[in-house]
């Protein structure tokens, strides 16, 4: 056997464990969910098998459509806010001296070192009636009681949770930008806004697209934050899926909603990939 064939065989064998894990933990469960999404719902709970499109038709009901619309709106809002703030943070880090950048990146990672549930409860303390935010507001004469539960608390917590995910792809794109381009733009009289609009934003478009994808996709499935900080008044689609499976025991409808969310996620990933490829081709042309 030639060396090339041995290397190819070794590479294929190394992929076997990962392929098995993906097959067992991802593909098979999603295939079961896809199958159940077309099953007939049992009024007493569970499913009766068979085939029907009624579950997908039910998702057009105003109750479910409203939750889907609200979830999409929150996901878009969080993606935009995280990307804008992440852009500013990434630019600041990328333009610092190289020896300081690892420390600044570590500060960005620190929130990820804490359990997600603990971080969420910390926002309850921070924004609650006895927290420092309300205390500061009262000290300056602003009447305030508590920001929990509220949509403001949900948005702030989502930003805090996903900001590190937004920073890193943008930072990676900015690291590849030649610093002399910024200096050349300044020499030609370009201001801060023009420099970013004509240099940094176009050249970091792939990172921006990745940031949008990495924040939009997980926001659709967030469960804890809307419950603890939003009081469950405006549930996201993740909360609705859990309710359908656990409280209503309507597995087919919950599976159908899960498949719709999965399709939205895949479309987002595909669009981000297209943008990245287009930008890469333009930069290499």
Automatic annotation (TrEMBL):
<feature type="transmembrane region" description="Helical">
    <location>
        <begin position="153"/>
        <end position="172"/>
    </location>
</feature>
<feature type="transmembrane region" description="Helical">
    <location>
        <begin position="12"/>
        <end position="34"/>
    </location>
</feature>
<keyword id="KW-0812">Transmembrane</keyword>
<feature type="transmembrane region" description="Helical">
    <location>
        <begin position="208"/>
        <end position="229"/>
    </location>
</feature>
<keyword id="KW-1003">Cell membrane</keyword>
<comment type="similarity">
    <text>Belongs to the binding-protein-dependent transport system permease family. CysTW subfamily.</text>
</comment>
<dbReference type="GO" id="GO:0005886">
    <property type="term" value="C:plasma membrane"/>
</dbReference>
<feature type="transmembrane region" description="Helical">
    <location>
        <begin position="103"/>
        <end position="124"/>
    </location>
</feature>
<dbReference type="Pfam" id="PF00528">
    <property type="entry name" value="BPD_transp_1"/>
</dbReference>
<keyword id="KW-1133">Transmembrane helix</keyword>
<feature type="transmembrane region" description="Helical">
    <location>
        <begin position="70"/>
        <end position="94"/>
    </location>
</feature>
<dbReference type="GO" id="GO:0055085">
    <property type="term" value="P:transmembrane transport"/>
</dbReference>
<feature type="transmembrane region" description="Helical">
    <location>
        <begin position="253"/>
        <end position="275"/>
    </location>
</feature>
<keyword id="KW-0472">Membrane</keyword>
<dbReference type="InterPro" id="IPR035906">
    <property type="entry name" value="MetI-like_sf"/>
</dbReference>
<feature type="domain" description="ABC transmembrane type-1">
    <location>
        <begin position="68"/>
        <end position="272"/>
    </location>
</feature>
<protein>
    <submittedName>
        <fullName>Spermidine/putrescine transport system permease protein</fullName>
    </submittedName>
</protein>
<keyword id="KW-0813">Transport</keyword>
<dbReference type="InterPro" id="IPR000515">
    <property type="entry name" value="MetI-like"/>
</dbReference>
